Amino acid sequence: xxxxxxxxxxxxxxxxxxxxxxxxxxxxxxxxxxxxxxxxxxxxxxxxxxxxxxxxxxxxxxxxxxxxxxxxxxxxxxxxxxxxxxxxxxxxxxxxxxxxxxxxxxxxxxxxxxxxxxxxxxxxxxxxxxxxxxxxxxxxxxxxxxxxxxxxxxxxxxxxxxxxxxxxxxxxxxxxxxxxxxxxxxxxxxxxxxxxxxxxxxxxxxxxxxxxxxxxxxxxxxxxxxxxxxxxxxxxxxxxxxxxxxxxxxxxxxxxxxxxxxxxxxxxxxxxxxxxxxxxxxxxxxxxxxxxxxxxxxxxxxxxxxxxxxxxxxxxxxxxxxxxxxxxxxxxxxxxxxxxxxxxxxxxxxxxxxxxxxxxxxxxxxxxxxxxxxxxxxxxxxxxxxx
Length: 387
Prior knowledge:
The chain is an alpha+beta fold. Helices cover 32% and strands 23% of the residues.
């Protein structure tokens, strides 16, 4: 296991074209779930210069969902509201290409329709959850601060204190580790879209002083290098600068490259899709393992077969940090957590009235606070301690 190294993670803002797509897809999901909690939704979005396309498979009793209006409202909320940005919610052309879910998939997922009495997994695949004890949120340091920088930058923009900033931004944090512990932030990169009226020097000073230094603790900022808009100019951005697609920021959405990833994206998918729900459950389990003191670092892998309720496999890896064997941790996880799709949805209240998913679609699905993020609770730690 590495002891002394540099590790880098990136985040992207709510105005990044891929994240615009994620937020539209999750807003559409929320609209269908609001009227029918049993809705089956797999919604994908593409955005480019003044154009939005929403496509996918939806089966729901919810009627009269105005997908075009939802997409425009998301774009407006982010800040894409005038032609100068090249993507204006009021003038963008929209195409909606939605149809019903395949009955071959439905029969394996819906209760009572398949071979098994219980709800089956919505697809095959493997999902991972991860936790580490180096931040209070039990998240890796580089991705945690990458997200926090962009959240504050967006807040400064929305509240008018950095009015020259536009919605599309990216951050990247490189952390130096000594003996496996984060000791210093080596480099911070922030690239943010801006108006022509601000100079590079003004932008750099504003981002460093008003954002980065308010987020990263001073004791980690030792000989730190700041690279702010290193190309020197970032006026053309957002969907006008790059085409955006749902599900293309899976590493930003999870742990910034720490641990493994099964490859499945989250946004636009209802909880019957284990790509999403089982990844949340795996994080829930891993976080509780670390919170219980059973390991300093924990990764949980779970895998499924489409239409089959029980997981095909469950693996726990503590990377040598466990206070008991990984097998014993895995046995305790299996006893405490129900990884069947119905068990996941019940434990995490994924279909409760009033739940929405749009909040998850920017700044990561993990290490967050609030009622939406039920998988961030550590309420099963005591059960895991008991064995």
